[in-house]
Amino acid sequence: MSSTVQDRVEELREQIRYHNKRYHQDDDPEISDAEYDALVRELALLEEQHPELTADDSPTAQVGFAPSEMFAPVRHLSRMMSLDNAMSLEELNAWGKRMERFITGQIDFACELKLDGLAVSLIYEGGQLVRAATRGDGTVGEDITHNVLTIKSVPQQLQNAPPLLEVRGEVFMPVSAFTRLNELQARAGERLFANPRNAAAGSIRQKDSRITAGRELAFFAYQLGQVQQGPSFARHHQTLGYLKELGLPVNPENRVLPSLEAVHGYCQEWQEKRHSVDYEMDGVVVKVDDLAQRLELGATSKAPRWAIAFKFPPEERNTLLRDIMVSIGRSGKATPFAVLEPVRVGGSTVGLATLHNEDQVRAKDVRPGDTVIVRKAGDVIPEVVGPVLSLRKPDSQPWQFPRICPECGAALERAVGESDTYCTGSDCPKQREQRIVYFAGRGGLDIAGLGERTVQLFLHEGLLKDVSDIYNLDWARIRRMENFGDLSVQNLQNAIETSKQRPLANLLVGLGIRHLGGAGSQVLARAMGSLDKIIQASEEELAAVEGVGPVIATSLHTFFQQEHNRQLIERLRAAGLNFAGPGDPTLPQVLKGKSIVVTGTLEKYSREAAEEAIKARGGKSPGSVSKSTTAVVVGEAPGAAKLTKAQELKIPILDEAAFERLLETGSV
Fold it and tell me: What is the mean pLDDT of residues 135-153?
């Protein structure tokens, strides 16, 4: 063994102990969970390869961290252990193989979403909550009873409870509550919380329980601990059912599955929809369901052999903030963004991240040269959560929002009482570019192939001045341009032609009218029936539409009263775009009482356009096939389940040509 290995082991132990304190005691971690896990895994591997370096006080042999002196110490009735991690199906299967050394036969697995919160132990005596404690080092935790008593989802009294009952679970902060808390922090000029876990931990470990009471914390029970004179159970899921019967909250998404393949499917499913619930999760806890098998498996010094945490890819990482720059949007809005040292986070490499507005930069106090926490949650735009203050350079200076547009040199102005800053340039080239990009984007006319780079090229070549020019492009000239072969030109032509049939709501979105989004556009198109009626309507008539209101109404009326916008509308009309909404009375209601299901990709219609065309003629367009379905329209790559169901029920199946005849005549 080289001294280099021993030095690295000691270095890793020192780093992990430091970060344990930052996480468990200070509630102010410097590194992300993924980076912490990487340190622990490296140390564990080195100790496995060099057994002579193992030590009882190594972080790999310990649970959590020693409790803080802020709270009275509490000795747990039985040890609260941590969990080993699996990062892939291979590691999950390796865990399963290790279990085969201890038990044989069928194993059922209880799967629970791994909430990103704070593990606690609750003690009930005679049904009364008498003590709550943090996990601490697994043996001794902190007494947080006075704070847990303020959590509404934790019952203070249980009916028909045994003389002694220990419940283990997770205290967490719902995402919605976290958002409200940070809004309050920003308004008060206080530092923002980095994530719901830190906010929950900081809230539960307050000396003043009134602060905790105002933080909207929640609780899920996940384990039955010590019990005196209670019922006996054979399975873990039965114990959760018992806790639920007693009145304790249990996560409804828990599942029992028969194989690790099914478990992995459950993990993948929740990785994809992890943001569909109002709490943060970072994985799935997988447990052996049979309690007798758990006894056979036992535990290591740190973790039970019968449970493992399947971790999702990290959504937060640390990286260097190289610079803060400002982008100009279609409306002139100036948005600060972070230029980052590229880092892999949330399944993709992130080099840029939003900073929202001037107030957010000030509240987060991020500065060029900082080490910052970057977050990317699913398809959400990456954002900088905040700086790691302990790593900030002594000569760091706060960033100042510029007062001149970086694109056109006009003044940047911020109205009194508003959070956003705008470019005042009347002919800012970046605004013109972004208006066209937005019009062609997925929320607007959804023109595949007309992205930001292509728009920039066409503007540079003088092929575009505004969105109406999209429908009068010089195709002969485009074919002579580099990177535009016959196929790419034909695809773009088809996409532009198809965009003419997009629903009116898409056109309204694409016009980029301030304050008008997708939902407002849909209710407006349905209520007014056509673009011409919207243009002719008064502010009062527009505001009377449910879901629109006076702010949007004023913005709409102002937009359509401006002469250059009216001229733009006429150019779009001449190009043949769809101005008719689903409530347009001029369209014959030939599909009234009919139910038409669309599946697969059509050439001339997007899925939205096809469904709107059906609804505009009085029909319904549900997402599934049933006995009441009149016909199923099938394009390329249709849904197999829908097609099979239609064939089983002998429902007419239409191609695109037959669909167009149906729209004209109403007959199948």
Answer: 92
